[in-house]
Amino acid sequence: MDTFSRSLLLLFVLLNPFIMSVYLMELVKGLTFSYFARQLIRAGMISFTIFLLFAWTGDAVFENVMQVRFSSFLIFGGITFLIAGIRLILGVGPPIQALRPESGQVSAAIAMPFMVGPGTISASVVIGSRLNFPMAASAIGLALLFSIAAILLIKIFHDFFRNRNEPLVQRYSEIAGRVTALFVGSFAVEMIFTGIERWLTRLQGVG
């Protein structure tokens, strides 16, 4: 698999549209398809802009603007993502409160924290370091496009089976989300290890 495909797949897995559809199930139930699609696309555009910023600036934005080491962000983000992944796999319950139709600023609420988080931001930085900017933007854009398409497809299935077998659709989404949570947990461990390695390398350089 080439670098572009690996980068696209990395962000798609971390976006995890199956689990996201579980978090957004109240919106899936309560909103019309057209309105839900518009809000989801707007959330995707917000996320795309944020991801592009981190892909372009890399870890410099952390050290020069936020005054924190990128290794610290990797370790903290990895721990947060690992806890979320473990909860999802064990079925303890969603680590984030589900979004409801009456929530204000639906598109912004979908973008953060459901799309933009420690894992996806770190992935954007990694993608920006792997690929030139136009290719990185394409990989990020396609990953978001595929994720939005998958969620809208789940919405279509949900509306079709609403009066027939709605629990089956929701159960399928939960199972698919738990399977992909295995990869999310694995990436979380990689984030922690990478952060520790960068921190140790920096200490050795100072020493």
TrEMBL record:
Pfam families xrefs: MarC
Keyword Isomerase included in the entry's annotation: no
Gene Ontology CC terms: plasma membrane
Membrane topology according to the record: Multi-pass membrane protein
Transmembrane stretches, start-end: 6-28, 40-58, 70-94, 106-127, 133-154, 175-196
Major location category of this protein: membrane
Entry superkingdom: Bacteria
Protein family: Belongs to the UPF0056 (MarC) family.
Annotated protein name in UniProt: UPF0056 membrane protein
Species assigned in the record: Candidatus Manganitrophus noduliformans
Lineage of origin: Bacteria, Pseudomonadati, Nitrospirota, Nitrospiria, Candidatus Troglogloeales
